[in-house]
Amino acid sequence: MNVTIELYIDYRWQTVGRFSPDKNTLELGIAGSGVFEYEIDYTVERLDNQPQWRSGLNYPVSFELFRSDRWPAFLLDIMPSGAGRRVWLRRLELQDRASADWELLCRGSGNPPGNMRIAEAVIPSPEQRHPGFSRDDIITRHADFIEYAEQRGAVVTGATDVQGDAPKFLVCRDRNLRWHPDGSLPDSELLDCWLVKFPRGRSDADRTVLRNEAPYLEVARRFGLRVAQPLEFCNDTLFIPRFDRTVTDAGVQRHGFETLSSVTGIAEFGKRGDHGLFCAAIARYADQPQNEITEYLRRDILNCALRNTDNHGRNTALFKLADARVQLTPLYDFAPMFLDPEGIPRSSRWANELEAAIGRPDWDAIISTLSGVIDADILRSTLHRDADTVARLPETMSACGVEASVIERLTQRCNEIAADLRTLKG
Protein backbone atom coordinates (compact mmCIF):
# COMPACT_ATOMS: atom_id res chain seq x y z
CA MET A 1 0.00 0.00 0.00
CA ASN A 2 1.60 3.24 -1.14
CA VAL A 3 1.11 6.46 -3.09
CA THR A 4 3.31 7.83 -5.86
CA ILE A 5 4.63 11.36 -5.36
CA GLU A 6 5.31 13.43 -8.45
CA LEU A 7 7.03 16.78 -8.99
CA TYR A 8 6.64 19.02 -12.03
CA ILE A 9 10.19 19.62 -13.28
CA ASP A 10 11.33 20.81 -16.72
CA TYR A 11 7.74 21.11 -17.97
CA ARG A 12 6.72 17.55 -17.17
CA TRP A 13 5.53 15.47 -14.23
CA GLN A 14 8.21 13.15 -12.89
CA THR A 15 7.95 10.32 -10.37
CA VAL A 16 9.94 11.31 -7.31
CA GLY A 17 9.22 8.65 -4.74
CA ARG A 18 6.63 6.75 -2.75
CA PHE A 19 5.10 6.95 0.69
CA SER A 20 3.93 3.78 2.41
CA PRO A 21 1.91 4.09 5.61
CA ASP A 22 2.23 1.32 8.16
CA LYS A 23 -0.93 -0.78 7.98
CA ASN A 24 -1.14 -1.18 11.74
CA THR A 25 -1.38 2.61 12.21
CA LEU A 26 -3.45 3.46 9.13
CA GLU A 27 -6.51 4.18 11.29
CA LEU A 28 -4.54 7.04 12.91
CA GLY A 29 -4.29 8.91 9.62
CA ILE A 30 -1.59 11.57 9.55
CA ALA A 31 -0.64 10.62 13.13
CA GLY A 32 0.34 7.15 11.94
CA SER A 33 3.82 5.98 11.04
CA GLY A 34 5.22 5.23 7.61
CA VAL A 35 8.15 5.29 5.20
CA PHE A 36 9.06 7.65 2.37
CA GLU A 37 11.71 6.76 -0.19
CA TYR A 38 12.92 8.33 -3.41
CA GLU A 39 12.79 6.41 -6.69
CA ILE A 40 16.18 4.92 -7.57
CA ASP A 41 16.27 6.35 -11.11
CA TYR A 42 15.24 9.78 -9.85
CA THR A 43 17.94 9.69 -7.18
CA VAL A 44 20.70 8.61 -9.55
CA GLU A 45 19.98 11.59 -11.81
CA ARG A 46 19.92 14.10 -8.94
CA LEU A 47 22.60 13.14 -6.46
CA ASP A 48 23.81 16.76 -6.36
CA ASN A 49 20.61 17.26 -4.37
CA GLN A 50 19.36 20.72 -5.38
CA PRO A 51 16.52 21.97 -3.13
CA GLN A 52 13.99 22.18 -5.97
CA TRP A 53 14.33 18.42 -6.50
CA ARG A 54 13.39 17.47 -2.95
CA SER A 55 9.92 16.37 -1.93
CA GLY A 56 10.50 18.46 1.18
CA LEU A 57 13.47 20.56 2.20
CA ASN A 58 14.12 18.21 5.12
CA TYR A 59 14.27 15.24 2.75
CA PRO A 60 17.54 15.36 0.77
CA VAL A 61 17.54 13.29 -2.41
CA SER A 62 19.27 10.05 -1.45
CA PHE A 63 18.89 6.28 -1.28
CA GLU A 64 17.86 6.56 2.37
CA LEU A 65 14.57 5.24 3.73
CA PHE A 66 12.89 8.06 5.65
CA ARG A 67 10.91 6.39 8.43
CA SER A 68 8.83 8.63 10.70
CA ASP A 69 6.32 8.30 13.53
CA ARG A 70 3.91 10.56 11.64
CA TRP A 71 3.30 11.12 7.95
CA PRO A 72 5.88 13.40 6.28
CA ALA A 73 4.88 17.00 6.88
CA PHE A 74 5.07 17.86 3.17
CA LEU A 75 2.07 15.60 2.52
CA LEU A 76 -0.09 17.86 4.68
CA ASP A 77 0.67 20.73 2.29
CA ILE A 78 -1.09 18.95 -0.56
CA MET A 79 -3.96 17.02 1.04
CA PRO A 80 -7.40 18.57 1.66
CA SER A 81 -7.79 20.23 5.06
CA GLY A 82 -10.18 22.46 6.95
CA ALA A 83 -13.43 23.16 5.18
CA GLY A 84 -11.99 21.71 1.97
CA ARG A 85 -11.73 18.41 3.79
CA ARG A 86 -15.48 18.49 4.35
CA VAL A 87 -16.09 18.83 0.62
CA TRP A 88 -14.06 15.72 -0.11
CA LEU A 89 -15.59 13.78 2.77
CA ARG A 90 -19.01 14.50 1.33
CA ARG A 91 -17.94 13.52 -2.19
CA LEU A 92 -16.33 10.29 -1.00
CA GLU A 93 -19.12 9.56 1.51
CA LEU A 94 -16.66 9.26 4.39
CA GLN A 95 -17.04 10.15 8.05
CA ASP A 96 -14.74 12.83 9.45
CA ARG A 97 -12.30 10.57 11.23
CA ALA A 98 -8.54 10.17 11.17
CA SER A 99 -9.04 6.93 9.28
CA ALA A 100 -10.30 8.98 6.31
CA ASP A 101 -6.91 10.68 5.86
CA TRP A 102 -5.51 7.96 3.62
CA GLU A 103 -8.46 8.07 1.24
CA LEU A 104 -8.29 11.88 1.16
CA LEU A 105 -4.60 11.75 0.27
CA CYS A 106 -5.19 9.13 -2.43
CA ARG A 107 -8.21 10.86 -3.96
CA GLY A 108 -8.00 14.57 -3.14
CA SER A 109 -4.35 15.46 -3.77
CA GLY A 110 -4.17 15.33 -7.55
CA ASN A 111 -3.93 19.04 -8.34
CA PRO A 112 -2.92 21.15 -5.32
CA PRO A 113 -1.07 24.47 -5.49
CA GLY A 114 2.67 24.21 -6.09
CA ASN A 115 4.38 21.53 -8.16
CA MET A 116 3.72 18.35 -6.17
CA ARG A 117 0.87 15.90 -6.53
CA ILE A 118 -0.19 12.34 -5.80
CA ALA A 119 -0.28 10.43 -9.09
CA GLU A 120 -3.13 8.16 -8.02
CA ALA A 121 -5.31 11.21 -7.25
CA VAL A 122 -5.02 12.82 -10.68
CA ILE A 123 -8.43 13.22 -12.33
CA PRO A 124 -8.25 12.33 -16.05
CA SER A 125 -8.85 15.11 -18.54
CA PRO A 126 -12.45 15.34 -19.75
CA GLU A 127 -13.13 13.52 -23.00
CA GLN A 128 -14.94 16.52 -24.42
CA ARG A 129 -13.74 20.08 -23.97
CA HIS A 130 -16.07 22.06 -21.73
CA PRO A 131 -17.07 25.49 -23.13
CA GLY A 132 -16.13 27.12 -19.84
CA PHE A 133 -17.90 29.70 -17.73
CA SER A 134 -18.25 33.46 -17.66
CA ARG A 135 -16.87 35.61 -14.87
CA ASP A 136 -20.45 36.26 -13.79
CA ASP A 137 -21.04 32.52 -13.46
CA ILE A 138 -18.27 32.44 -10.87
CA ILE A 139 -19.38 35.58 -9.05
CA THR A 140 -22.97 34.33 -8.76
CA ARG A 141 -21.72 30.87 -7.82
CA HIS A 142 -23.73 29.28 -10.58
CA ALA A 143 -24.67 25.73 -9.64
CA ASP A 144 -23.21 24.28 -12.85
CA PHE A 145 -19.84 25.91 -12.16
CA ILE A 146 -19.68 24.66 -8.56
CA GLU A 147 -20.72 21.14 -9.56
CA TYR A 148 -18.17 20.93 -12.38
CA ALA A 149 -15.40 22.44 -10.24
CA GLU A 150 -16.01 19.87 -7.52
CA GLN A 151 -16.00 17.08 -10.10
CA ARG A 152 -12.63 18.32 -11.34
CA GLY A 153 -11.17 18.51 -7.83
CA ALA A 154 -10.67 22.28 -8.02
CA VAL A 155 -11.90 22.96 -4.48
CA VAL A 156 -8.92 23.79 -2.29
CA THR A 157 -10.93 24.85 0.74
CA GLY A 158 -14.48 25.76 1.57
CA ALA A 159 -17.78 24.11 0.87
CA THR A 160 -21.22 24.90 -0.42
CA ASP A 161 -23.20 27.64 1.25
CA VAL A 162 -25.57 25.03 2.68
CA GLN A 163 -22.79 23.93 5.03
CA GLY A 164 -22.04 27.48 6.12
CA ASP A 165 -18.67 27.95 4.41
CA ALA A 166 -18.19 29.55 1.02
CA PRO A 167 -16.03 27.85 -1.61
CA LYS A 168 -12.47 28.63 -2.62
CA PHE A 169 -11.56 27.41 -6.08
CA LEU A 170 -8.49 27.04 -8.26
CA VAL A 171 -9.48 28.26 -11.72
CA CYS A 172 -7.88 29.18 -15.03
CA ARG A 173 -8.78 31.13 -18.15
CA ASP A 174 -8.51 30.00 -21.72
CA ARG A 175 -7.48 32.29 -24.55
CA ASN A 176 -11.12 33.15 -25.21
CA LEU A 177 -11.36 34.51 -21.64
CA ARG A 178 -13.62 31.68 -20.51
CA TRP A 179 -13.10 30.30 -17.02
CA HIS A 180 -12.48 26.64 -16.15
CA PRO A 181 -11.66 24.65 -13.02
CA ASP A 182 -7.90 24.24 -12.77
CA GLY A 183 -6.70 20.98 -14.27
CA SER A 184 -9.48 20.70 -16.83
CA LEU A 185 -7.61 22.36 -19.72
CA PRO A 186 -4.45 21.32 -21.58
CA ASP A 187 -1.52 23.58 -20.69
CA SER A 188 -1.37 24.73 -24.31
CA GLU A 189 -4.77 26.42 -23.96
CA LEU A 190 -4.10 28.33 -20.73
CA LEU A 191 -4.01 32.11 -20.57
CA ASP A 192 -3.55 32.52 -16.81
CA CYS A 193 -4.33 30.88 -13.46
CA TRP A 194 -6.30 32.22 -10.49
CA LEU A 195 -7.62 31.42 -7.05
CA VAL A 196 -11.16 32.62 -6.29
CA LYS A 197 -12.27 33.30 -2.72
CA PHE A 198 -15.67 34.04 -1.23
CA PRO A 199 -16.52 35.23 2.31
CA ARG A 200 -15.86 32.65 5.03
CA GLY A 201 -19.40 33.03 6.36
CA ARG A 202 -22.62 34.96 5.90
CA SER A 203 -22.05 37.87 8.30
CA ASP A 204 -21.25 41.49 7.44
CA ALA A 205 -17.91 41.03 9.20
CA ASP A 206 -17.01 38.11 6.91
CA ARG A 207 -17.72 40.28 3.88
CA THR A 208 -15.73 43.17 5.36
CA VAL A 209 -12.69 40.93 5.79
CA LEU A 210 -12.83 39.81 2.16
CA ARG A 211 -13.49 43.33 0.78
CA ASN A 212 -10.39 44.63 2.49
CA GLU A 213 -7.97 41.87 1.49
CA ALA A 214 -7.12 43.50 -1.85
CA PRO A 215 -6.37 46.94 -0.34
CA TYR A 216 -4.45 45.25 2.50
CA LEU A 217 -2.13 43.74 -0.10
CA GLU A 218 -1.56 47.19 -1.60
CA VAL A 219 -0.63 48.51 1.85
CA ALA A 220 1.94 45.72 2.06
CA ARG A 221 3.22 46.67 -1.39
CA ARG A 222 3.76 50.28 -0.28
CA PHE A 223 5.43 49.02 2.89
CA GLY A 224 7.97 47.30 0.65
CA LEU A 225 7.04 43.68 1.23
CA ARG A 226 7.27 41.01 -1.43
CA VAL A 227 3.85 40.79 -3.06
CA ALA A 228 2.49 39.47 -6.34
CA GLN A 229 -0.06 40.99 -8.73
CA PRO A 230 -2.95 43.09 -7.39
CA LEU A 231 -6.14 41.28 -6.39
CA GLU A 232 -9.51 41.96 -8.01
CA PHE A 233 -12.69 42.24 -5.93
CA CYS A 234 -16.22 42.20 -7.32
CA ASN A 235 -19.53 41.49 -5.56
CA ASP A 236 -18.19 39.50 -2.60
CA THR A 237 -15.78 37.61 -4.86
CA LEU A 238 -12.00 37.96 -4.71
CA PHE A 239 -9.95 36.99 -7.77
CA ILE A 240 -6.32 36.27 -6.86
CA PRO A 241 -3.68 35.81 -9.60
CA ARG A 242 -1.65 32.73 -8.70
CA PHE A 243 2.08 33.24 -8.12
CA ASP A 244 2.80 29.50 -8.31
CA ARG A 245 1.91 29.39 -12.02
CA THR A 246 3.56 31.22 -14.93
CA VAL A 247 2.26 30.69 -18.46
CA THR A 248 5.09 31.00 -21.01
CA ASP A 249 5.56 30.21 -24.70
CA ALA A 250 7.45 27.09 -23.63
CA GLY A 251 4.62 25.89 -21.41
CA VAL A 252 3.26 26.34 -17.90
CA GLN A 253 5.80 26.70 -15.12
CA ARG A 254 4.59 25.19 -11.84
CA HIS A 255 6.70 26.69 -9.08
CA GLY A 256 7.41 24.52 -6.08
CA PHE A 257 6.85 25.85 -2.60
CA GLU A 258 6.66 24.43 0.92
CA THR A 259 4.92 25.95 3.91
CA LEU A 260 6.88 26.85 7.02
CA SER A 261 4.79 24.32 8.93
CA SER A 262 6.14 21.60 6.66
CA VAL A 263 9.71 22.91 6.67
CA THR A 264 9.70 22.84 10.49
CA GLY A 265 8.30 19.32 10.55
CA ILE A 266 4.83 20.15 11.87
CA ALA A 267 2.89 17.09 10.72
CA GLU A 268 -0.45 18.12 12.22
CA PHE A 269 -3.10 20.75 11.63
CA GLY A 270 -4.02 23.54 14.03
CA LYS A 271 -0.77 23.68 15.98
CA ARG A 272 0.35 27.16 17.08
CA GLY A 273 3.41 28.35 15.21
CA ASP A 274 6.69 29.51 16.76
CA HIS A 275 8.29 32.41 14.86
CA GLY A 276 11.69 31.49 16.25
CA LEU A 277 11.51 28.01 14.74
CA PHE A 278 10.28 29.46 11.46
CA CYS A 279 13.22 31.89 11.35
CA ALA A 280 15.64 29.06 12.07
CA ALA A 281 14.23 27.16 9.09
CA ILE A 282 14.54 30.22 6.87
CA ALA A 283 18.14 30.71 8.00
CA ARG A 284 18.92 27.07 7.26
CA TYR A 285 17.50 26.87 3.76
CA ALA A 286 17.27 30.36 2.23
CA ASP A 287 20.17 31.29 -0.01
CA GLN A 288 20.08 34.87 1.38
CA PRO A 289 19.11 34.51 5.06
CA GLN A 290 19.60 38.20 5.91
CA ASN A 291 17.15 39.31 3.22
CA GLU A 292 14.57 36.62 3.95
CA ILE A 293 14.58 36.99 7.74
CA THR A 294 14.31 40.77 7.34
CA GLU A 295 11.33 40.23 5.03
CA TYR A 296 9.82 37.80 7.54
CA LEU A 297 10.14 40.19 10.49
CA ARG A 298 8.75 43.09 8.48
CA ARG A 299 5.76 40.91 7.60
CA ASP A 300 5.21 40.26 11.28
CA ILE A 301 5.41 43.99 12.00
CA LEU A 302 2.60 44.52 9.53
CA ASN A 303 0.66 41.54 10.89
CA CYS A 304 0.85 43.08 14.36
CA ALA A 305 0.03 46.62 13.25
CA LEU A 306 -2.86 45.64 10.95
CA ARG A 307 -3.94 42.72 13.14
CA ASN A 308 -3.81 39.91 10.63
CA THR A 309 -4.14 37.29 13.35
CA ASP A 310 -4.46 34.27 11.04
CA ASN A 311 -0.69 34.05 10.59
CA HIS A 312 -0.26 30.30 11.01
CA GLY A 313 2.63 28.39 9.48
CA ARG A 314 0.68 27.27 6.43
CA ASN A 315 0.03 30.90 5.49
CA THR A 316 3.74 31.49 4.80
CA ALA A 317 5.86 29.41 2.45
CA LEU A 318 9.28 29.07 0.87
CA PHE A 319 9.70 28.91 -2.89
CA LYS A 320 11.88 26.08 -4.19
CA LEU A 321 12.72 27.70 -7.50
CA ALA A 322 14.02 25.99 -10.62
CA ASP A 323 17.39 27.79 -10.37
CA ALA A 324 17.93 26.32 -6.86
CA ARG A 325 17.08 29.54 -5.02
CA VAL A 326 15.04 29.23 -1.83
CA GLN A 327 13.17 32.32 -0.69
CA LEU A 328 9.86 33.38 0.78
CA THR A 329 6.96 33.34 -1.64
CA PRO A 330 5.00 36.55 -2.10
CA LEU A 331 2.73 37.44 0.80
CA TYR A 332 -0.68 35.76 0.76
CA ASP A 333 -3.80 35.46 2.94
CA PHE A 334 -3.12 38.91 4.40
CA ALA A 335 -6.35 40.49 5.66
CA PRO A 336 -7.96 42.13 8.74
CA MET A 337 -8.63 38.77 10.36
CA PHE A 338 -9.19 40.38 13.78
CA LEU A 339 -12.68 41.15 12.45
CA ASP A 340 -13.52 37.50 11.84
CA PRO A 341 -16.64 36.53 13.84
CA GLU A 342 -14.96 33.32 15.02
CA GLY A 343 -12.42 35.38 16.97
CA ILE A 344 -9.19 34.06 15.44
CA PRO A 345 -6.28 34.52 17.89
CA ARG A 346 -2.74 35.30 16.75
CA SER A 347 -1.83 31.90 15.36
CA SER A 348 1.98 32.16 15.36
CA ARG A 349 3.87 33.95 18.12
CA TRP A 350 7.34 34.52 19.49
CA ALA A 351 8.19 32.27 22.42
CA ASN A 352 7.84 33.28 26.06
CA GLU A 353 9.32 36.68 26.94
CA LEU A 354 9.89 37.55 23.28
CA GLU A 355 6.15 38.24 23.06
CA ALA A 356 4.93 38.56 26.63
CA ALA A 357 2.03 40.72 25.43
CA ILE A 358 0.32 39.06 22.47
CA GLY A 359 0.76 41.17 19.35
CA ARG A 360 3.51 43.34 20.91
CA PRO A 361 6.78 41.48 20.28
CA ASP A 362 10.04 42.58 21.91
CA TRP A 363 11.84 43.37 18.65
CA ASP A 364 15.21 44.07 20.25
CA ALA A 365 15.25 40.75 22.10
CA ILE A 366 14.09 38.95 18.97
CA ILE A 367 16.92 40.43 16.91
CA SER A 368 19.41 39.39 19.59
CA THR A 369 18.26 35.78 19.33
CA LEU A 370 18.86 35.90 15.58
CA SER A 371 22.34 37.44 15.78
CA GLY A 372 24.00 34.11 15.04
CA VAL A 373 22.53 33.94 11.55
CA ILE A 374 22.07 37.58 10.49
CA ASP A 375 23.76 40.96 11.00
CA ALA A 376 21.83 42.22 14.01
CA ASP A 377 22.91 45.85 13.67
CA ILE A 378 21.68 46.08 10.08
CA LEU A 379 18.37 44.48 11.04
CA ARG A 380 17.90 46.86 13.98
CA SER A 381 18.54 49.85 11.74
CA THR A 382 16.09 48.55 9.15
CA LEU A 383 13.29 48.01 11.64
CA HIS A 384 14.03 51.33 13.38
CA ARG A 385 13.55 53.09 10.04
CA ASP A 386 10.18 51.36 9.69
CA ALA A 387 8.83 53.16 12.76
CA ASP A 388 7.71 56.30 10.94
CA THR A 389 6.28 54.23 8.09
CA VAL A 390 4.21 52.23 10.57
CA ALA A 391 2.99 55.42 12.22
CA ARG A 392 1.76 56.61 8.81
CA LEU A 393 -0.06 53.35 8.06
CA PRO A 394 -3.53 54.84 8.70
CA GLU A 395 -2.89 57.36 5.89
CA THR A 396 -1.46 54.61 3.69
CA MET A 397 -4.49 52.41 4.33
CA SER A 398 -6.82 55.22 3.39
CA ALA A 399 -4.91 55.85 0.15
CA CYS A 400 -5.05 52.13 -0.70
CA GLY A 401 -8.79 51.86 -0.14
CA VAL A 402 -9.02 50.17 3.26
CA GLU A 403 -12.40 51.03 4.74
CA ALA A 404 -12.56 53.83 7.30
CA SER A 405 -14.23 51.63 9.94
CA VAL A 406 -11.28 49.23 9.76
CA ILE A 407 -8.68 52.01 9.90
CA GLU A 408 -10.35 53.49 12.97
CA ARG A 409 -9.85 50.25 14.88
CA LEU A 410 -6.18 50.01 13.90
CA THR A 411 -4.84 53.53 14.45
CA GLN A 412 -3.90 53.01 18.10
CA ARG A 413 -2.20 49.69 17.37
CA CYS A 414 -0.14 51.29 14.59
CA ASN A 415 1.04 53.98 16.99
CA GLU A 416 1.97 51.35 19.58
CA ILE A 417 4.00 49.26 17.14
CA ALA A 418 5.71 52.40 15.81
CA ALA A 419 6.68 53.37 19.35
CA ASP A 420 8.12 49.89 19.95
CA LEU A 421 10.25 50.15 16.80
CA ARG A 422 11.60 53.58 17.74
CA THR A 423 13.33 52.04 20.77
CA LEU A 424 15.63 50.05 18.48
CA LYS A 425 19.16 51.31 17.97
CA GLY A 426 21.41 50.20 15.13
Automatic annotation (TrEMBL):
Domain HipA-like C-terminal: 163-342
InterPro entries per the UniProt record, alphabetical: HipA-like_C (IPR012893), HipA_Ser/Thr_kinase (IPR052028), UCP028135_HipA-like (IPR016869)
Gene Ontology cellular component list: cytosol
One of the record's GO molecular function terms: protein serine/threonine kinase activity
Pfam family, one: HipA_C
Coiled-coil intervals: none
Taxonomic superkingdom: Bacteria
UniProt keyword Kinase, yes or no: yes
Keywords: Kinase, Transferase
Family: Belongs to the HipA Ser/Thr kinase family.
Protein name listed in UniProt: HipA domain protein
Lineage: Bacteria, Pseudomonadati, Thermodesulfobacteriota, Desulfuromonadia, Geobacterales
